[in-house]
Every structure is written in structure tokens, then in C-alpha cells.
Design a protein that fits this description.
The chain is an all-alpha fold. The protein is built from 6 helices and no strands. Helix 4 packs across helix 5.
């Protein structure tokens, strides 16, 4: 009888502990997954607003986005299109920030001189990574300020 009580007690502690640990690959989503989910959520909200609530607006929405025979896939097609557009806008902003950062670094390298620039930003043995480190620094600053 005592063995049964001990086994039951151990079981009670083991099961919740096993359920608390997520399996491999099922933990917190990475930051890119989170931003992707946020983009899709915003796209879904935009599509819901565009679809409207009246019979006429829903019919027009289905005609605009629906691609199958009964146009029942309109909402999914709308979300997909808006997600791609939002992601594209984010990527363009990132590219622009990087281009501006590169321009700043080129100007700073010219102003300081190559050796001083390498000493300021370089981190490896021969300081050859100075330009990349500079661009990274300015791109991150521009990304956080936007």
C-alpha cells in the first residue's frame, strides 16, 4: 500500500514537470517569427476592415480577392497579399537604412583617414572589419529610431 502511495506521489510530480518543458523547436518563437506573426495579424485586421459587414461590401471583397469558383478564399488571399506588401515595405526600410549607414561610414572614413577609422571601428587582428562594424552600428541606430 505504501509503495502505491509513493508511486502515485511521484507520478503527480513527474507529469506536470514533463508538461512544463516544451519539446525541441517548440519553445518561444524567434524574433523574426514574432514580427512575421505581427505582420499577418495587422494584415488580417486590414482585410477584415476592408471586407466590411454589409452584404454588398462582402460581395465586392470576394470579387476583388477571391480566386476559386465560389470565391471563398478571398480573405486568405487578401491577408497573403497584404502580408507580402507589409514585409516588402519593412525590407525596403532596412535596405534604405543600410544604404544610408554605408554613406555615413564612407564619409567618416574619408574624414578620419583610413587608419584612424580602422582603429575606431575594427575589432579583429588587422582591423579589416572596420567598415562592416561601422555600417552595422549606424544601421542599428537608424532601425531603432524609426
Amino acid at each position: 500500500m505504501t509503495r502505491l502511495v509513493i508511486i502515485a506521489a511521484l507520478f503527480c510530480f513527474a507529469v506536470p514537470a514533463a508538461l512544463a518543458v516544451p519539446p525541441d523547436g517548440k519553445g518561444k518563437p524567434e524574433s523574426s517569427e514574432v514580427s512575421s506573426q505581427a505582420v499577418e495579424k495587422n494584415a488580417a485586421k486590414a482585410c477584415k476592415a476592408e471586407r466590411g459587414t454589409t452584404t454588398q461590401s462582402i460581395a465586392a471583397f470576394k470579387v476583388k480577392y477571391g480566386t476559386n469558383s465560389n470565391q471563398a478564399n478571398a480573405f486568405g488571399k487578401c491577408v497573403s497579399a497584404k502580408s507580402k506588401a507589409l514585409k516588402g515595405a519593412d525590407e525596403k526600410a532596412d535596405d534604405k537604412a543600410e544604404a544610408n549607414a554605408a554613406k555615413k561610414c564612407k564619409a567618416e572614413r574619408t574624414q578620419l583617414g583610413v587608419d584612424a577609422f580602422k582603429n575606431k571601428y575594427g575589432t579583429n587582428a588587422n582591423k579589416a572589419n572596420a567598415f562592416g562594424k561601422c555600417v552595422s552600428k549606424y544601421a542599428k541606430q537608424q532601425g531603432s529610431s524609426s
